[in-house]
Amino acid sequence: MKRVFVTVGTTRFDELVERVTSEETVQALVDRGYTELVLQVGHGSDVPGPESYSGLKVNAFRFKDSISEDMKQADLVISHAGAGSCLEALGAQKALLVVVNDKLMDNHQLELARQLHSDSHLLYCTCSTLTETLKTMDFSTLTPFLPGQPQNFAKFLDKALGVASQC
Amino acid sequence: MDMLLLGVFFGCTLIALCIIVQLVVVLRKGSKCKPGTKGSVCVLVVAGSGGHTTEILRLVGSLSQSYRPRHYVIADTDKMSEDKIHTFESAQSDRTNRPQYTLHRIPRSREVRQSWSSSVVSTLYALFYSVPLVFRLRPDVVLCNGPGTCVPLCAAGLLLGILGLKRVVLVYVESICRVETLSLSGKILYHLADYFFVQWSSLKNKYPKAIYMGRIV
Q: Residue A83 is nearest to which of B34, B51, B64, comparing CB atoms?
């Protein structure tokens, strides 16, 4: 069983939901061996039902207290460019495809996705190139995203504030 | 009458000058301030909303047991952060068996996308709550990472120093989401924080005074 998890974050991204559930994209996912599609659609106008997707089991919901379980169980995460979602997916060491909403004005949330893309931690596309990207994507070229090092911060602060180190 | 006005004018100028001189003195003393030498460091942690809170708890989690007690301040519209903090702290107290934290609320100083002018008003309003809180808690360190709430709290911390009551060390860690530009809080606190961290080299290039040690959350 191979699962795709789509997340749009706290707002909505109808174009992504429509695109992902379009016949063409569903076929592309099935061709790549995916058997299950779970969508978090936020305030989107439509919550796709489980019917009429050939070869793909579809489940959708608006919000959950935590989507970390959905992240964990996914083999591929398709996400909006929000920093929180990107970090959560990469933190869980998931293959991540970020879909940029080009209808939104440039906002600072995009900074992080762009940087993570140029450091080759994720793939990046728009709604209009989504299907094509799903057909050709290759995650083997990406480099793993290593967790940040808060202990370096703690060491620095101990020294700066004169806290005796405990080792 | 003219003399009186002139007197008031000079008086005010003198007070303003004293405050500025004192502010400069306080800001310069920052790196010499070592609250850790007395044993434990009392920390005021400014938790923002959502992502900010997750990030700051990772930082707090890296600190040793010398950093206690920990006083968390959250914006009063934020329920999620409160739950996160309680979960985080109860995991911490498993190690020591006694909780060493308190939680406080102040009015939110700036909602996302709030306009500049109304931000000023609500920040002043938040300051009105921040000053008594910070004066009561008297933290050694204020640790924050960018929510609007941190500006009035840092200002209150500075005020303690200006009045000569206590030198509060301000530690600011810019959110990992900020790659090319600082947040509004960051732009203000870059000039005031004693230790200002950024997590991407492009920001270090733009803001040379910042401390850069890679990603720390």
A: B51
pLDDT of A167 above 60: no
Q: Indicate whether B78 belongs to any domain.
A: yes
**Given an 8 Å threshold on Cβ–Cβ distance, is B179 in contact with A160?**
no
Nearest to A44 by CA among A21, A25, A17, A22: A17
Residue B189, SS3 per DSSP: helix
Q: What is the CATH number of the domain that holds B134?
A: 3.40.50.2000
Q: Does B11 reside within a domain?
A: no
Number of domains chain B is built from: 1
Degrees, nearest 5: CA angle A45-A51-A52? 105
User: What are the tens digits of pLDDT across the range B147-198?
Assistant: 888 999 999 999 999 999 999 999 999 999 899 999 989 999 999 999 999 9
Spatial distance between the Cα atoms of A53 and A30, rounded to a whole number of angstroms:
10
Query: Could A111 and B169 be called an inter-chain contact, meaning their C-beta atoms sit closer than 8 Å?
Result: no
Q: Predicted ipTM?
A: 0.89
Return the exposure string of A84-95: e unless at least 16 CB atoms fall within 10 Å of the residue's CB, then b.
bbbbbbbeeebb
Distance CA A26, CA B120 (A): 49
- Domains present along chain A, CATH in parentheses: 3-161 (3.40.50.2000)
The candidate with the shortest Cα–Cα distance to A29, out of A51, A57, A52, A9, is A57
Nearest CB to A150 within list B59, B180, B181: B59
What are the pLDDT digits (tens) for A64-80? 988 999 999 999 999 99
Which residues have CB under 8 Å from B66's CB, separation 6+? A158, A163, A164, A166, B36, B39, B40, B41
DSSP code at position A138? -
| Residue B7 belongs to some domain of the structure | no
Q: What is the pLDDT of residue A109?
A: 73
Distance of CA B133 to the CA centre of its chain: 13
- Under an 8 A CB cutoff, do B216 and A164 touch? no
